[in-house]
Design a protein that fits this description.
CATH architecture: 3-Layer(aba) Sandwich
InterPro entries: NAD(P)-bd_dom_sf, NAD(P)-dependent_oxidoreduct
CATH class: Alpha Beta
Largest sheet: 3 strands, parallel
Order of helices and strands: HEEHEEHEHEHEH
Number of strands: 7
Organism: Salinimicrobium oceani
Structural class: alpha/beta
Shape: globular
Protein name: NAD dependent epimerase/dehydratase family protein
Number of helices: 6
Helix content: 25-40%
CATH superfamily: NAD(P)-binding Rossmann-like Domain
CATH topology: Rossmann fold
């Protein structure tokens, strides 16, 4: 079964259960990467063209459009923490693409804080982008993290144009009053 089909079944089950409020954890992959590093806020229409991105967009719509319960969508960036970090897959590699592409990560502790604030403030029927508020270039970020960790420095290829997106966390910081605790 496809992802959005599974979410449709989940939505129906939630509606039948009597649950009235749902937090749906989604992904910033609903936004397309561009050569000019477009800045996306929650007001931007999701525009992913990949199959998985379109499936996630469809799943979000299914959850938001169910009239039986209120859904808040939280679009998290790349997850780090609890032993998880993309540097593990990049350390020591060469000819990596997209050196100037912005990094959009969030620490697990900050993910928990975002969810907790939605619950505490009872903010449902909303969409939030949740990433650490700074978006350094991939090359600079991963090379610095490799040095800090004592790992082999990844090398990037500058022969192709970089693409990416900058995800704004301003709504999370403003409405949820999230103070990001974990520097990426």
């Amino acid at each position: 079964m496809d992802y959005s089909g599974a979410i449709r079944l989940l939505s129906e089950a939630i509606a039948a259960s009597g649950v009235k409020k749902v937090i749906f954890v989604s992904s910033i992959s609903v936004y397309e990467e561009t050569k000019d590093f477009k800045i996306y806020t929650e007001d931007a229409e999701p525009n992913a063209t990949s199959v998985s991105g379109r499936e996630i967009i469809s799943a979000e719509k299914i959850m938001l459009q169910n009239p039986i319960f209120d859904t808040t969508i939280i679009r998290f960036g790349g997850l780090i923490g609890a032993g998880r970090h993309p540097l593990k897959y990049l350390a020591g590699r060469s000819a990596l693409g997209n050196p100037l592409g912005p990094v959009n990560l969030i620490h697990l502790r900050d993910c928990k804080q975002v969810i907790k604030k939605v619950l505490q403030k009872d903010l449902f029927g909303e969409v939030y982008n949740a990433v650490y508020p700074l978006n350094p270039p991939r090359e600079k970020y991963y090379q610095e993290k490799a040095r800090e960790a004592g790992l082999e420095i990844p090398e990037f290829d500058h022969s192709k144009a970089s693409e990416g997106k900058i995800i704004s966390a301003s709504k999370v910081m403003r409405e949820l009053e999230v103070d990001f605790q974990e520097k990426i």
